[in-house]
Structures are given as C-alpha cells and as structure tokens.
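Listing 4. Sequential folding, example run.
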Amino acid sequence: MTNPEQAIQYIHTHFERFIRELSEYATIPSVSFPGYPGEPLNESAKWTARKMRDAGLEHVEILEIPGAPPFVVGDWLHAPGAPTVLLYAHHDVQPPGRPEKWHSPAFAPERRGDRLYGRGVVDDKAGALMHLFALEAYLKTAGKLPVNVRFLIEGEEETGSEHLGEFVRRYKDRLKADVMVLTDTANLDLGLPSLTYRLRGLVDAIVEVRTLDHPVHSGMWGGPTLDALSALNQILARLTTPDGKIAIPDFYEGIEPVVGLEKERLRALPFEERKFLQEVGAVESLRLAGERDFSVYERIWCRPACAILG
C-alpha cells in the first residue's frame, strides 16, 4: 500500500523546483490558433515528453495526426489488479492578446507574491505538470503507484480539439482505461480544491431575422413597418419568463433532477452573492437570475441555461 502522506511531503519539499519548471514550460509560446507558428507546439510537445520520462513514465511518444499539433502519450502499468486511470491535459495555449494589457510579458512568467503570471501557467500547463509531479512524488517515495496510469497531453484543445476524435480512434489501445481524470477545470475558490464531475452540454444557433429586403427611411415608413431589431427583441423577450424559467417548449425535457446527497452538498457549498457579482463584473443594479427554486450552483452546473450572445 502506498503512503500518500510521504508523496505530499515530497511535493512540499520540491515545491520551488516545480514552480521553476512550470515557469520554464510557460515560456514556450505554444499557441494553437491559426496564423501562429507551429514550431513552438513541437517544442512544447518535446518538453512535455522529456518531463514525462523524468517523472518515471514509460513508453513516452509524440504522436501526430495530419494537420494537428502533436499529441504526447505515456504510461505506467505496474499495478496488477488495480484500475487504470487516463490522465488528460493540454500543452497548447490561447493567444496572448494585447501586450499592453499585461503587466509582464505573456511568455516570460513572473512571480508576484504567491501567484505566477503568464500565458498557460494555469490553462493548462499547470494541469499537465500537476499530473506529472504527483506521479513523480509517488514513484520517488513509494517506488510505485496505487493505480495504473496512462497520459494524454494534446496540443489543440484551445481550438476545439478538432483531431482528438480521430486520434482516439487511431490510438485507442494506448488510451484504454477504467476512468479518466482531466486537469482543465477550476477550483471553486482559492484554498478550496474542487473536483468537477459533471458538465453541461452546449447547443448553439445563429438566429437571423429579416422583415424587409432593403433598408427604408424610418421617418417615412416607421410605425406600420416592423423593423428587424424590434421583431428580434420580441422573440428574445419570450425566451424566458419573469421568474427566470426558460419558456422554450420542451427545453427541460429529459433533465434529471439533482437529489439526495448531491443536492445537499451543492447547497452546503459556500456562496457569497456580492463576491459572485463582483467576479463576473456585474453592474451595481444587476441581480441574480435564473430559477429561484434552485441554488446558484445548481443553476450553473446542473440546470440548463439559455444565453443570448451578440
């Protein structure tokens, strides 16, 4: 039986090295968006593979699908009778955006206080290294892991993982597992580690409303002539009811209710409305919306929502 306390102590002992390695990782500008050079993604994949080997993983390979940034895989399969866990993260990052908005260069990570600032230090290079540091800590202290592990670190998550399905089909034998854990989610709050175990799906649609085949002068035609924006406004206003429910027919069809212990734990989570509104940048007069019969966390994580973007 492995001792997690020893592994945790190892992490505390080597914490500063881990931060240095994360900083080094984040200096690689591995942006996966079109128009950015591909070489940093190759460099990032090589860096990832090297750290996988350093941590103790075996069968580490950089695998490619035509047209996709490189994937990195590895495994440790020496726990007979134990389940196999597939650990997922990604080594690509978002574009840095406008340089003048950064207090320090996006790809020159800077430590200020107890935080590290740089593109990718959280999403998701910290996620990739968190897996590897945990594995290293176990192997260095116990010599083995309590479970079998497989690793998949992809390079195009930020652009929608277009080739991930093809990769999984082609290399499914390298990814066989009983359960999958990914580190590309958030903690509920600072100092409150969180496990995300359910996500809502997404369906989007582009709505176009036309009332006329050419523009007309509102002073001459306005009134009896319905303009498209007014028609669209009427449509949008009918999507929800005054009490926050979604009025689209059959929208709630098939939604499984949250009950029992799950509901109790959601309601027990700390929540401050003022802090929540501050974090989303709400204007002073804005109040919480949605179904009042459900807690805020149920509305965010478990209930369907209808958002209008434009």
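-- end of first protein; second protein begins --
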Amino acid sequence: MKKKWWKILCVAILIYSILGALLFDVPRLAILNETIRNLHFHVTMWFAMIILLTTSVVYAIKYLRSNKIEHDQISVEFANAGVLFGMLGITTGAIWAGFTWGEPWSGDPKQNSSAIALLIYFAYLVLRNSLEDQQQKARISSIYNVFAYAALVPLLFILPRMTDSSLHPGNGGNPGFNAYDMDSK
C-alpha cells in the first residue's frame, strides 16, 4: 500500500477534475458561456507538461553525471508524456480560442511560443530516433534536452508576457484571469 498511495491520489484528483469540469458552477459571461469548463482541462494539461518536462531534464542531467542508461530511459519517457500533454494543451486551447477569440489560431504570442516550444521537443524526439548507438543516443539527446528546456522556460513564461498584443489571459505579467476575463459572481 505504501507504493500505491500516489496512484490513488492521482485517480482521485482526475475524478475531481472531471466532475468539477462537468458539474461545478461556472462564471456566466456572454463570451465564455459554458466553454469556461475547458479551463479544468486546458490549464492542467500545461501544468502537467511543465512538470513532466522538468522531470525529464532532471533525469537527463542525472544521466550526464552518471552514464546510467536507466536515467536516459526515464528522461525520454517523461519527455514523451510531456509532449503528449503539450499537444493536448495546445489542442484544448485552440478549441477554446475558437469560441472566445473567433478563430482557433490567431497568431497570439502565447500560441506561437507554445508551438515553437513543442516543435523543439519534437526535434528532440526525432534526434533520439535518428541515432543508432545507445550511448551516443543517450548522451546527445540528454544534452539536447537540457538546451530544449532552457528554451522552453523563456518561450512559455517570459517572451509572451513582454508583448501587449496578446489575447490570452495573463497578458502584461499577470498569469491568471483578470476582471475582463471572468465575472466575480
């Protein structure tokens, strides 16, 4: 039971999130209507991606320090899951943008920088699969992973907030919703 507590916690959080998205009261705004329920999925996908890619780069650094192939395998699996959650996050965001902004892809700085960050990680996965030698694959992809993560942080957290032209909530340095995004009920 000691090793299963986190699995039970994850299932409980998933059930809570799904039920919350479907059943909880949501703010009523003419623009958002019921699409605000997407918030339960869209934001959590991005948080999951960040956590997974952070874990991936930690294991990449562990591999570079120890040369244990297990660390590389863990790193790549976390990166795979992180890219999956990133794709789900960008998809749910595009669906939501279609309702709130009138088009799924408006060239918003946060959309563009998120797409660039995901392309960098797609290149990481392509790089891994293009190399045959296991040790070479592990070393080169671990080094690339560190640089990809170093690019991810400014692409997601710094550059989009430096522009005034973003439609996305969090423009101007505030990562959350403001009075124009939701009502205070």
